[in-house]
Design brief:
By secondary structure, the chain is an alpha+beta fold. The protein has 2 domains: 99 residues; 398 residues, Glycosyltransferase (Alpha/alpha barrel). It is built from 16 helices and 21 strands. The strands form 7 sheets. The chain has a 6-stranded antiparallel beta sheet with strand order 1-2-3-8-9-10, with no helix packed on it. α5 runs parallel beside α7 and α6 crosses α7.
Length: 538
């Protein structure tokens, strides 16, 4: 049957096969292509806008979104669903396939179900590089990490906290510190904890996530924002705002209405009163990063620490003169997160407000941060009115946030070799600091060539998967996983960062050395083998 699905768009649904499709004409207006279909407890909605398809799949009360570049119309987007699996196709190209059973809500029913999402079930339709992973080893590592989370729990009275000017927290938290890490890595860092939370969701350790969330909300109540970390010297700034997304995913997984009602106004406060405050504002309408007065650091360095990239060649020496891609992409996602939470609370005016906020920022990012010359998203220097000179892996955050158009994504995928090396994804292309512009020497710029960092790999893979470039994401994931597991086999340790050019632990710009770490490195071992993450996380 034909079901109207928005301006000049029809959904075709056949009851037996549970198939529906949308055909979008070339002259369809922006926003056209909205439709929905349902099959038992599986519901689907799709939107095609500016050559990008967004498919939202809801199983019971669990919602997962996939974003894919499809280019200009017309297109036929098809979803085939059975009781146990689904396949998304555009024209004749399969975008993604997955099992309805691979969702955290179902994993909570049995401790062994999550493990079934590895090996053959995951690799059947994947690239040769992905299938080449040692899946038995990966599963053993996953089991080891699953049973080791409690060892990474820190409390405010932990003796290691005496090494820093610690801010006491009311709940235990999962820190990144391995047993051999420096004591200061027992700090609850904002964006580090986000990646840990995602892995904890996969491993059904919602009890540990809850403590992280409660501490995050406690710090917003105290400071108006989550500081860089729970140390006094770090409290004059925040860190890249990812954490709220994990709160939304926790609420979806648990249905915790009390937390929903309590967290929402605090997150709105952080978003509006801190991230959109005057000290972050710039003439472009996009934000920059700034510190509120760290007495121990050059203001440029303190501001750069708020991005999490402390420090890098990427911002041409002064992040406060730029609109960073990663910060603005994170705020696009933050606004959409608030819109989702407002929808759960039945606040339609705020749903519209935050959705419009996200769309406005995405439009500005396409205007100012896209470099037609480089074929990538680059941080924009609004003072000099030009892009920064150095390309970074944060370019792919525009894909993760759904900002990039289909044509832009195709160019970014084609340009992956600008940053991809044999052992992983570079933090930046090869670059050296200009002494006239930089406060530090190259040796302290650790988020720079030849270093590769796990969180940048996770976001890049997530973004490429969302637009259907799974083979490209496979290359990134498998190279990092091979590097991590090789060193783990040789040393028994995972590390904070790796030399992805020669595959070693030796970095000429390691700042404080290449230290051991669990945190986002073990999160990478949990998340990357289970991609795509949109089909994995609530």
């Amino acid at each position: 049957m034909l079901v109207p699905g928005g301006a000049d768009v029809f959904l075709v649904q056949t009851q037996d096969e549970q198939t529906f499709a949308a055909v979008l004409p070339e002259d369809a207006p922006p926003g056209a292509g909205i439709g929905a279909a349902s099959s038992a407890n599986h519901r689907y909605a799709l939107t095609i806008r500016d050559g990008v398809a967004d498919i939202t799949r809801t199983v019971d009360d669990l919602t997962v979104q996939n974003t894919f570049a499809v280019g200009p119309g017309p297109h036929r987007l098809t979803i085939d669903a059975t009781a146990t699996a689904y396949t998304l196709r555009v024209d004749d190209r399969t975008l993604v396939a997955g099992a309805h059973g691979c969702c955290p809500r179902r994993w909570r029913k049995t401790s062994s179900a999550a493990a079934s999402c590895s090996s053959a079930a995951i690799t059947a339709a994947r690239s040769p590089s992905y299938r080449s992973l040692d899946w038995k080893m990966m599963k053993n590592l996953d089991d080891s990490i699953r049973h080791g989370w409690d060892n990474d729990v820190v409390r405010s009275d932990d003796p290691r906290r005496q090494s820093v000017e610690s801010i006491d927290l009311p709940f235990p938290w999962v820190a990144g510190a391995a047993p051999t890490s420096p004591d200061w890595y027992t700090t609850m860092f904002s964006w580090d904890t986000y990646f840990t939370n995602l892995a904890l969701i996969v491993h059904d350790r919602l009890d540990l996530i809850r403590g992280n969330i409660e501490n995050y909300l406690f710090l917003i109540e105290r400071f108006g924002y989550m500081p860089n970390g729970n140390e006094q010297p770090l409290s004059t700034r925040s860190q890249i705002p990812l954490f709220a997304d994990s709160i939304l995913r926790y609420i979806r997984a648990t249905g915790d209405q009390e937390l929903l009602h309590r967290a929402y106004p605090l997150l709105v406060r952080e978003y509006r009163d801190y991230w959109l405050a005057d000290h972050h504002a710039t003439p472009t309408g996009l934000v920059t990063n700034r510190d509120l007065g760290d007495p121990t650091l050059d203001p440029r360095l303190a501001a750069e620490a708020e991005t999490g990239l402390d420090w890098t060649t990427q911002f041409d020496g002064d992040v406060t003169h730029t609109n960073p891609v990663m910060t603005n992409a994170a705020l696009v996602v933050y606004a959409r997160t608030l819109a989702h939470l407002a929808n759960m609370l039945k606040l339609p005016d705020q749903v519209r407000e935050f959705t419009a906020d996200a769309d406005r920022r995405a439009t500005l990012m396409r205007r100012f941060c896209w470099s037609e010359d480089r074929g990538h998203y680059l941080d924009y220097d609004y003072v000099r009115e030009q892009h920064v000179a150095v390309l970074g892996a944060t370019s792919y955050w525009a894909l993760w946030a759904g900002v990039a158009t289909g044509e832009q994504t195709a160019r970014m995928a084609a340009g992956l070799d600008d940053l991809l090396r044999d052992h992983g994804l570079l933090s930046t292309e090869q670059s050296r600091p200009d002494p006239a512009r930089f406060a530090l020497e190259y040796e302290d710029l650790q988020w720079t060539y030849p270093a590769g960092w796990p969180p940048l790999h996770i976001i890049a893979c997530w973004g490429l998967d969302r637009y259907g470039y799974t083979d490209h994401a496979d290359k990134i994931a498998t190279r990092l996983l091979a590097t991590i597991t090789r060193h783990l086999g040789e040393t028994g340790e995972t590390y904070e960062k790796y030399n992805v050019v020669d595959g070693s632990l030796d970095l000429p710009n390691s700042r404080y050395g290449t230290i051991t770490l669990h945190g986002w490195t073990t999160a990478a071992l949990v998340l990357l083998p289970r991609r795509p993450l949109d089909g994995l996380l609530p």
